[in-house]
Design a protein that fits this description.
It holds the Pfam family Svf1_C. By secondary structure, the protein is mainly beta. It has helices at about 15-20, 225-230, 360-365, 365-375, and strands at about 15, 30, 45-55, 60-70, 75-85, 90-95, 100-105, 110, 115-120, 125-130, 135-145, 150, 160-165, 185-205, 205-210, 215-220, 230-240, 250-260, 265-275, 275-285, 290-295, 300, 305-310, 310-320, 320-325, 325, 335-340, 345, 350, 355-360, 380-395, 405-415. The chain is globular, with a radius of gyration of 20 Å. Residues about 1-10 and about 370-380 have low confidence and may be disordered.
């Protein structure tokens, strides 16, 4: 892997996952055991495992482990926590350096002085998380997968967007992911889109029972310097809570646009869960008609950050309907979903609804990585984070067999502006 630039050999220098797996009927890649294993790669590598929970009152809780490697230096490991609820103006954020981090023998569990994550050895569908961030914040949470987990494409290269010249070497045999196929690096996301969540969170003297919460788990790896990989990111996590039957809905979307060095290509992956079943896996972006996408409606200049920020966000999903992981037949063969969220309350100051905070990205990156990456002079990346109640609309089927479901829920969304 090149640390300081893109491959100079001939050929495309980015291979988006949505063009690698272009058959709309073959987007679903079931997660294998090795997909959920910690990779802990060397070189330039940032690996995250993130658990989100949406509670009955509309709060969102996040627990994230960040494993960052910089060349030959020892990895930096952080564990972060967020609790936010715009209704009560609650916003608690913690980021703690992890000591004595060890991946366990199953390669899916890990232990440290601050956090222990255990994968249920009996079925591989449940994580138990015990963490103490400091004297004020402590969590004990269980996540049990209820809808199928996925990546884009069922192969060792499933889920990967590769940067640099694509290797001509055969992919690994069996279920081992092909981390080495991109001459410059890669990006990948593996997702559990809908989980039952239980347990507790203690913040100070306040203890919150998470019984009935719903969540998502995301295992993501960036095998490339962050400032080279993407110019911006968008993320949406919609969950209905306290809903039964067809209103048990989850909508997930992750999108990034590569830097000009890698062609300014957009990569978008997503999923639709209805009735706690995975009914669609989506892929969109450059080179794809339809699929999934996010639209920044009527962007305006945010004087505080100097970035063009959205007045509203429109997330849309379109894909072949799945039944038990396979394309459905007949008139129920399509899925469409839409979430539209108006944001702006005051244009001049860019005051927006449900804003949790604007995060200075450089302030959150561990010091050694920040020093090594050496962002270009004059850039100041930001992450905008919102949490809002919204209505999602999901349409199943085509023609006379079309059925539309409108369901209320909460969407946790992020827009990361890395560079212009």
């Amino acid at each position: 892997m090149s640390w300081f630039g893109s491959s100079t050999t001939s050929g495309p220098n980015i291979h988006p996952v949505q063009t690698t797996f272009s058959d709309p009927n073959a987007l679903f890649g079931p997660l294998k055991v090795k997909d959920l294993e910690w990779n802990c790669g060397g070189g330039i590598n940032t690996e995250t495992q993130t658990w989100y929970a949406t509670t009955k009152d509309g709060s969102v809780i996040m627990c994230q482990i960040i494993h960052s490697s910089v060349g030959l230096l020892w990895p930096n490991i952080q564990v972060t926590f967020r609790l936010c609820n715009p209704k009560t103006n609650t916003n608690v954020w913690k980021s703690v350096s992890v000591t004595n981090f060890k991946v366990q023998s199953d390669k899916r569990s890990c232990k440290s002085d601050q956090i222990t994550v255990t994968m249920d050895p009996t079925n591989g569908n449940k994580y138990t998380i015990q963490a103490k961030y400091d004297e004020d914040v402590q969590i004990s949470i269980e996540y049990e997968r209820v809808a199928d987990g996925f990546k884009i494409g069922d192969s060792p290269r499933g889920g990967f967007t590769y940067f640099g010249q694509l290797s001509s070497k055969p992919a690994p045999s069996g279920d081992a992911p092909d981390y080495a196929a991109g001459g410059d690096g890669y990006a990948i996301h593996r997702i559990w889109p809908r989980c039952n969540v239980s347990g507790m969170v203690r913040v100070g003297n306040d203890v919150q029972d998470l019984d009935g919460a719903r969540g998502v788990f995301i295992h993501a790896i960036q095998g490339l310097r962050p400032n080279l990989l993407a110019a911006n990111w968008n993320f949406a996590n919609f969950q209905s809570v306290g809903k039964e039957g067809e209103e048990a809905v989850s909508l997930i979307m992750m999108e990034f646009t590569s830097t000009p060095q890698y062609g300014s290509k957009t990569v978008n992956i997503g999923s639709v869960v209805v009735g706690d079943k995975l009914v669609a896996v989506t892929a969109g972006g450059s080179g794809v008609v339809g699929g999934s996408n996010v639209t920044h409606v009527d962007p305006i200049k945010d004087a505080e950050t100097d970035y063009d920020a959205p007045s509203a966000l429109k997330f849309s999903w379109e894909a072949t309907r799945l039944e038990d992981g396979k394309p459905a037949a007949g008139g129920n063969a399509k899925v469409h979903a839409l979430v539209h969220m108006d944001l702006v309350e005051e244009k001049e100051t860019y005051k927006t609804k449900g804003l949790v905070e604007k995060v200075d990205v450089l302030g959150q990156i561990p010091y050694l990585i920040r020093k090594f990456v050496n962002y270009a002079a004059g850039t100041k990346p930001y992450i905008y984070t919102w949490l809002n109640p919204v209505k999602a609309s999901i349409t199943l089927g085509d023609g006379s067999e079309t059925k539309t479901i409108d369901v209320d829920g909460y969407v946790f969304s992020e827009f990361s502006a890395i560079s212009k």
